[in-house]
Write a structure and sequence with these properties.
Elements (H helix, E strand, L loop, with lengths): L1 H13 L3 E5 L27 H4 L2 H6 L1 H11 L9 H11 L3 E6 L5 H5 L4 E3 L2 E8 L5 E2 L1 H6 L16 E5 L8 H12 L3 E5 L19 E5 L12 E3 L3 H5 L6
Parallel strand pairs: 1-2, 1-7, 2-3, 7-8, 8-9
Antiparallel strand pairs: 4-5, 4-6
InterPro entries: DHS-like_NAD/FAD-binding_dom, NAD-dep_sirtuin_deacylases, Sirtuin, Sirtuin_cat_small_dom_sf, Sirtuin_class_U, Ssirtuin_cat_dom
EC number: 2.3.1.286
Keywords: Cytoplasm, Hydrolase, Metal-binding, NAD, Transferase, Zinc
Length: about 240
């Protein structure tokens, strides 16, 4: 493993336009559960499958059950960035990393100090009225549990929706274009904490034309064979050994 860490350090030292493409594994060390892990959302007992509950058609049809699930499982309070988030922010500040492309919706990259972050699936921190477009924060959604109908209602009466991409919804074009441009112009692509099975997000890595693909994940992925360096370990253990020069 030491040889692989040394090789990763060399790649980072030689790179100037790194893009980090991350998934749920980036935030699990901050206490946010992985959707597909043994203890993740997809293993819980609910009246409906989680994939159904967090779909747009279910949101429109049964918003009360959607928000019951959303508040309990997707609003995670008092979480803080971990070593991976902070190290990526350091790499950006040092002029080594040009962008973070994330499938996560927790906002922890920005909280750690990252500036250029493409949130493919949106963010729980942003919410908007579907009628008048007024913005609301995450606390407003959490507190709506105590409202008369348990739904987050705007002052205009409209339903407030999280700025999260639900199943059956399209990804934001501006976010996708920014992510594709960053990946296409990167000299190194570091893929971390993702199984690369969620599309269309996982398909974005095919735009990479640079020198090195590094894959860091606890378990094997379908992209391992195409990577120049594969490390099967937790991101925190890897990044805590990386020095930012």
């Amino acid at each position: 493993m030491n040889d692989k860490i040394s090789r990763l350090q060399e790649i980072i030292d030689e790179s100037h336009r790194i893009v980090f493409f991350g998934g749920a594994g980036v935030s699990t060390e901050s206490g946010i559960p992985d959707f597909r892990s043994q203890d993740g959302l997809y293993r819980q007992e609910w009246k409906y499958p989680p994939e159904t509950i967090i779909s747009r058609s279910f949101f429109d049809r049964n918003p009360k059950e959607f928000y019951r699930f959303y508040r309990k499982k997707l609003i995670i309070k008092d979480v803080k960035p971990n070593i991976t988030h902070y190290k990526l922010a350091e790499l950006e500040a040092a002029g080594k990393l040009s962008a973070v492309v994330t499938q996560n919706i927790d906002g922890l990259h920005q909280l750690a100090g990252s500036k250029t972050v493409y949130e493919l699936h949106g963010s729980t921190l942003r919410n908007f009225c579907m009628k008048c477009k007024k913005s609301y924060d995450i606390d407003f959604i959490a507190a709506s549990e105590n409202s008369q109908d348990t739904l987050p209602r705007c002052g205009c009466g409209g339903l407030v929706k999280p700025d999260v991409v639900l199943y059956e919804e399209s990804l934001n074009d501006d976010v996708i274009n920014g992510a594709v441009d960053a990946i296409a112009n990167a000299d190194t692509l570091i893929i971390g904490g993702t199984s690369l099975i969620v599309y269309p997000a996982a398909g974005l890595i095919r735009y990479f034309r640079g020198n090195n693909i590094v894959l860091i994940n606890k378990t094997a992925t379908t992209a391992d064979a195409n990577a120049d360096l594969v490390i099967h370990d937790s991101l925190g253990k890897v990044f805590e050994q990386i020095k930012v020069n």
